[in-house]
Write a structure and sequence with these properties.
single chain, 339 residues, alpha/beta, Rossmann fold, seven-stranded mixed sheet, 11 helices, 16 strands, 31% helix
């Protein structure tokens, strides 16, 4: 990520007008961004690992896009609909005659996004740096009508009966195929206290609760606060609890779970990261009661077997699908044996 480099270049070139007051920054992922602009920054970041990292570097963090700011910086995401929605939201909180800086990578479609802005907003200087671009948007004139469409396109919408998603969340267009495999294979086996790791917008937990009265509690752990808020609306069963958390850093709870279910992510950017799913396997072992069972689904090409060996004394592969492996694991190893 080089959003900070592009911002520093824009400051050095004098492309960002001076402001009186803090600048709102939407979706920053690099702590270095805090040093790239000579102004106080207020950061909105719904992804818990990035939120926590920014906090460790002293960032001022907010959980809602509200208030009034002289300017805003938007770090484009891989979802163009989400990015355009953020631009519309920024317009509504930035003062007239202020500015919005949009920065993003070419691989995430920043060129096409900037092209979409032209003719709708006043796009000023565009800086190319670090395999990406930064565009300055002048907040002037009447509010353009397309902003309403951009906000609507990024908002919650129903993709399955009783379930809503939104632009930018995992599996935004419908039910994930891996979650379907997991639900079909393990829902009849669930009972007692259950943890759903990487719960997304809640489909897996919602279906499990509908099918199994033997479940006494199910806790949904999700790093994306937008997805978790959707899950709160999608899963209204009183047995459900919701936790905005980085699953990979979850400590061992005082009261552990009878079952853990997970469809782990395997990337946070365009590059795959098998270590992320392996960290989910380790987390499931920490959360699981000695007599409990973990059920984890994974794409067939992902190397999770060694993680199961390291964290469980027994595991097997259940019947999955041509695309997905479905694992069942028991007897989590102690911290000493895992270390």
């Amino acid at each position: 990520m080089t959003d900070s480099i592009r911002l520093a270049r824009a400051v050095a070139d004098g492309a960002l007008p001076a402001v009186d007051g803090p600048i709102l920054v939407l979706r920053p992922t690099e702590p270095a961004i805090l040093r790239s602009v000579d102004a106080d920054l207020v950061c909105w970041q719904p992804f818990r690992p990035a939120y926590d990292q920014l906090g460790q570097f002293g960032a001022t963090l907010v959980e809602e896009i509200t208030g009034h700011y002289p300017a805003a910086i938007i770090c484009a995401t891989r979802s163009r609909a989400e990015t355009l929605g953020l631009i519309a939201q920024a317009w509504d909180v930035v003062a007239e005659d202020g500015w919005i800086a949009l920065t993003g990578q070419k691989t995430d479609g920043i060129d096409a996004t900037i092209k979409r802005l032209r003719g709708v907003l006043a796009v000023g200087e565009v800086i190319a740096k670090g395999h990406g671009k930064l565009a300055l948007i002048l907040r002037e004139g009447a509010r353009p009508d397309p902003l309403d469409t951009w906000r609507a396109d990024a908002s919650a919408r129903e993709v399955a009966p009783g379930y809503q998603t939104a632009a930018g969340v995992f599996s935004a267009d419908g039910i994930d195929a891996g979650s379907r495999v997991l639900a079909a294979g393990v829902t009849p086996l669930l009972k007692g206290r259950v943890a759903d790791l990487g719960a997304g917008w809640g489909w897996l937990s919602g279906e499990a609760l509908k099918a199994q009265e033997a479940i006494t509690q199910i806790d949904l752990y999700e790093a994306d606060r937008i997805a978790l808020d959707l899950a709160r609306g999608n899963v209204t069963d009183p047995r459900a609890g919701f936790h905005w958390a980085d699953v990979t850093t979850l400590p061992k709870p005082s009261l552990r779970y009878d079952a853990v279910i997970a469809n782990p992510p395997f990337h946070t950017s365009r590059e795959g990261d098998p270590g992320l799913g392996q960290a989910f396997v380790a987390a499931s072992a920490r959360l699981l009661a000695p007599g409990g069972t973990a059920y984890i689904v994974a794409n067939r090409h992902l190397p999770y077997e060694q993680a199961f060996n390291a964290n469980f004394s027994w595991w097997e592969e259940m019947e999955g699908s041509p695309q997905f492996k479905l694992f069942r694991a028991r007897r989590p190893k102690s911290d000493r044996k895992r270390g």
